[in-house]
Amino acid sequence: MNPKVSVIIPAYNTEAYIAKAIESALEQTLTDIEVIIVDDGSSDKTVEVAKSFTDQRLKVIVNQQNLGVSAARNRALKAAQGEWIAVLDSDDWYAPERLEKLVLLAEQKNADMIADDLHLIRDGAKSPWSTLIQESGEHIEKILQIDIVYFVRTDVYRQRGLHLGLSKPIFKREFLLKHGIEYDEEIRMGQDFWIDMKCLIKGSRFFIEPKPYYFYRSRPGSLVHQSQLARLNQYCKATNYFMQQEAVKTNPDLIRALYYNLKVSKKNLAYLQVVEPIKQGKWLTALTEIRKNPGFFYDFTSRFKNVVERRIQYYVMGNKSSFDMYPNLHKKRKTTN
Fold first, then answer.
1. What is the pLDDT of residue 329?
2. Over 70: is that where the pLDDT of 107 sits?
3. Calpha distance 158→330 (Å, rounded)
4. What angle (nearest 5°) sits at the alpha carbon of residue 320, between those of residues 326 and 307?
5. Cβ neighbours of residue 66 under 8 Å, at least 6 residues apart?
6. Cα(56)–Cα(53) distance, integer angstroms
7. Mean pLDDT in the chain?
8. d(Cα 118, Cα 164) in Å, to the nearest integer?
9. pLDDT at 307
């Protein structure tokens, strides 16, 4: 018989973390599972660590070259046989009861996908500093069905909100197969948001469980420390693509929500196209971008107070969470790409 859940773990150079991820999957109270690891061309000992486990439910697939996290996940999806698909990043981990709880709730609600709250934890910390829902400003006390407009409206770049694009739903595999849904391999950042969008556009019944069972690690080496320009460019491109879909065109509220998100992203993109060259000492490039963006100085002035306050909190007051403030959480993406 096929397993109840297929846990797919894309991995790239996470030798120091992947053992904890694998252990958390294999030690689930729901034992009827398979765990599929796709190593995406790691140059460290990630594969060696993964293959050190002898549990027969574990399968390790190795890409000979780095193809990106979406391609790695798609390869795992093709190999998966479970009724449900659960995604786990190789530097995160599950609470022991996560899969049992979510599958039970999904079956009770006849869900096509269901997510839980996320524990937010810094690398090296002993306990989480907050959760996704706590930082969102939303008040969710019981299981809630998520419609596509709410999903988009509460996930705006650099703005406080629920940001369910960060969540890790479990998906009914039958639904994914029926609609031919997989990860977009041209998108190397923010993949979770867009596969959720694909599901919701196809009418997926999506629920959020307000209890956190997923531990979302923030660590050095993730894309939080890299340029945001690529992510914003990809976001704008993907948003434009989705806005051309017939199912979107016939939903005025969704069009408005996507248009607003696109507007915010373009504004931040224009700002960063000046700031990033300045950080790199490319003054001529920065000046060229300023000419294209006459509103840069107004935008910079409006942000300056927050920038200074956060640096005072971090360097003077010793508040190490000041750079983990919720509007920036969306920037954290793993080095599985």
1. 47
2. yes
3. 8
4. 60
5. 12, 40, 41, 337
6. 9
7. 87
8. 10
9. 60
SS (H, E, C) the chain: CCCCEEEEEEECCCCCCHHHHHHHHHCCCCCCEEEEEEEECCCCCHHHHHHCCCCCCEEEEEECCCCCHHHHHHHHHHHCCCCEEEECCCCCEECCCHHHHHHHHHHHHCCCEEEEEEEEEECCCCCCCEEHHHHHCCCCCCCEEECHHHHHHCCCCCCCCCCHHHCCCEEEHHHHHHHCCCCCCCCCCCHHHHHHHHHHHCCCCEEEEEEEEEEEEECCCCHHHCCCHHHHHHHHHHHHHHHCCHHHHCCHHHHHHHHHHHHHHHHHHHHHHHHHHHHCCCHHHHHHHHHHCCCHHHHHHHHHHHHHHHHHHHHHCCCCCHHHCHHHHHHCCCCCC
User: 10 Å Cβ neighbour count for 318?
Assistant: 8
Residue recorded with tokens 């996470």:
14
- State percent of the chain over pLDDT 90: 64
pTM, two decimal places: 0.87
